[in-house]
Design a protein that fits this description.
Structural class: alpha+beta
Shape: globular
Number of helices: 11
Helix content: 55-70%
CATH architecture of the largest domain: 2-Layer Sandwich
CATH class of the largest domain: Alpha Beta
Radius of gyration: 19 Å
Largest sheet: 5 strands, mixed
Number of strands: 5
Strand content: 5-15%
Strand order of the largest sheet: 3-4-2-1-5
Distance between the termini: 16 Å
């Protein structure tokens, strides 16, 4: 039976680097944040103890999801999950991992408006509390919040996700260093919130993700895992 962390070591289909290094915002001190997807053997689900839905490790700053849980979160428009599919820093990708990335468009829908906005709102509230408690927010977290809002707006506007900071890099790094005032940050955040709302109204993204397409693929993966075993990976 597969158990953590061995399920990650033996059954990973996709492993990427996310965070500042993937966003074009890294510094010499930046961590290497790894995220991945594994396929637990189908036969393991017949046991009383089911395979883990996610695993931390075994490497530092590594987190992986079992493919079914990953698909559930991606269909819900989870920003962190969608970034895994779009990271340019791929460390491992099997044929099945390539199939998963090929499903990217099936996961995308206008749901991302609420998920991205909700995540940004949560991070902003935490930053405000930190500022009131300690005198200033954690600027790195604010930088990532703003970058995510930019990514969400571009996704809604174009139908395509871009995680690289691109032309916003220097201004985002200025946020990280504390070079922008809290008032400037709040103004930028309000502008991005309005941009997200405007983009929703005319977005080329469908109202709902293509759940059937994703589910059919997942069933095929389970069947192939049962037939082919570890050769699937």
């Amino acid at each position: 039976m597969s158990e953590a962390p061995y399920v990650v070591e033996q059954h990973t289909i996709l492993s990427v680097v996310v965070g500042s290094r993937a966003f074009g915002l890294s510094t010499a001190a930046s961590d290497t944040d790894r995220r991945g997807v594994y396929v637990a053997p189908t036969a393991d689900f017949w046991r009383m103890t089911k395979p883990p839905t996610h695993v931390e490790g075994p490497l530092p700053e590594q987190f992986s999801w079992e493919v079914e849980r990953f698909c559930e979160l991606a269909l819900a428009g989870n920003p962190n999950i969608l970034e895994v599919l779009h990271s340019p820093l791929v460390e491992k990708r099997s044929a099945i991992g390539a199939e998963l990335q090929g499903l990217t468009s099936a996961f995308l829908s206008r749901r991302v408006h609420s998920t991205f906005a909700r995540y940004a709102g949560s991070q902003f509230a935490k930053a405000e509390n930190c500022r009131q408690r300690e005198g200033e927010p954690r600027w790195k977290h604010i930088m990532h919040m703003l970058r995510l809002m930019i990514s969400g707006a571009v996704l809604l506007e174009s139908g395509t996700m871009h995680i690289d900071a691109g032309p916003y890099r220097e201004r985002l790094l200025a946020v990280r260093s504390g070079a922008l005032s809290w008032e400037e940050v709040c103004t930028w955040r309000d502008e991005l919130s309005a941009r997200l709302d405007r983009a929703l109204a005319t977005s080329p993204l469908p109202e709902h993700p293509d759940t059937a397409r994703v589910e059919n693929w997942l069933v095929s993966v389970r069947r192939r895992s049962l037939t082919n075993g570890t050769s699937l990976i």
